[in-house]
Amino acid sequence: MLPSRYTVVDVETTGLSPYDNRIIEIGIVRVEDGEIVETFESLVNPRASLSSTITRITGITSADIVDAPYFEDIAIEVISLFEDSILVAHNAAFDLQFLHFEFKRLGISFHPKELCTVRLSRRLFPEHKRHGLDAQIERYGLTIHDRHRALGDTLATQQLLEVFSELLDEDTFNKHVKTLLSQPTKISKTIWQDIDDLPTAPGVYTFTDEKKKPLYIGKSIDIKSRVNQHFSRARFDQKERELCSKTKHITYEKTAGEIGALVLESRKIKDVSPPYNRALKRVQSMVIAVIHTSSSGYKTLTYERVSYISSQRLGSIAGVYSSIKQAKAKVAEISKEYCLCNKLLGIEAGSGACFSYHLGKCSGACVNEGTVISYNKKFDHAFAESMMLEWPFGDYVIIGETNVGNTFTDILYVDSWRVFDSLDDRDDKTPIDVDTYRILLRSFKSYESSSPVSFVVQKKKITADQLKVFLQSS
């Protein structure tokens, strides 16, 4: 049995993020006791022109919305249609987010009970892989006019809900509907408030569950916009949908800029290892490709599995990998590109010339052909991007990063590619964090004197050109 009162809604929008975009059309059908009692549709002026992509999808042009009412002009009529009623939508989280933000801008709270026909379809018919509206229309032969227009999609969704109720026995259908309605709203009221309170500034944000346990940690130069993207992508991405449904709170920590956010994110992820973070989790061990010199003077590689990298090894590591297999596969690619010797690189055993030499793809270092100088020069060029450089400065470096508006500055104390909270915290035994190394190196290489970042070396602020000289010397 269907709910006695429900209101089906669909919105067309200028984009996917409800924070950055607006509603351009809304269609609503209110149903009471199985009968449609009211229908509403309206174009909405979003105070912005429409992209060609949106026009191609919806057929709505910028000219169509010039004289359309603003959302505030129709807000009271819209919200009245949801009074004492359950909101029904296909991908309800999407429509609900946009309506929430539109009403929020007007100072109106909007948190109706929701029933999502996508979620209902997945529960009722798990054997189907596709649950989008196009798939449902094709599967059940629904009658639809104006696909990708708000009222057309609304009427299709209302038909779909009726089809579901007819296909299953009453007890089974009611059980699943009741379960979805009794579950907390996919995006809870606390999440709405947390999102509203997020800053449009750089920093690190944390999604936590009902026990305040971190689920995911991320960073952005605009925290609010980035978090909204997670919830917008949940409409299409299963992993994002799962993460957002489990998230009950969002916290954040502002930084002055991107460098501070990158370093803070890396630290936090390694401290707590959230289940939805993958790339930056603390690893128990890694494989390093170590540079040696043969008796003939050629540069060679061996592979070691290590649990940490000390600062003393900087300059002798050609690359860091997750496994021996990955290391040798990557080195083999480099060898092929630069015509290096697979034997000297430790990826081929045996005596005599390597296999690539016989194919004309090795310059002959394995049989002492060619000069040591030219081979080693190719080696250095081949591993220039992956090699872990020696610390190019004689002492520590202070990085100052100032936020937009010049209201505060983050200070990072860096020594041998390691970040410390203060100079007193420096410890030579602290291992190198590979992710932090990469973040810092990328920041150093991209530094421009006009950027809101300053580098102090030996108590003197240095220019971008001076920084490049230091890097070239390492």
TrEMBL record:
Residue ranges of every copy of the GIY-YIG domain listed in the record: 200-278
GO cellular component, one term: cytosol
Gene Ontology biological process terms, A to Z: DNA replication proofreading; nucleotide-excision repair
Secretion signal span: none
Pfam assignment, any one: GIY-YIG
InterPro entries for this protein: DnaQ, GIY-YIG_endonuc, GIY-YIG_endonuc_sf, GIY-YIG_UvrC_Cho, Ribonucl_H, RNaseH-like_sf, RNaseH_sf
SMART domains listed in its UniProt record: EXOIII (SM00479), GIYc (SM00465)
GO molecular function, one term: DNA binding
The protein's name in its UniProt record: GIY-YIG domain-containing protein
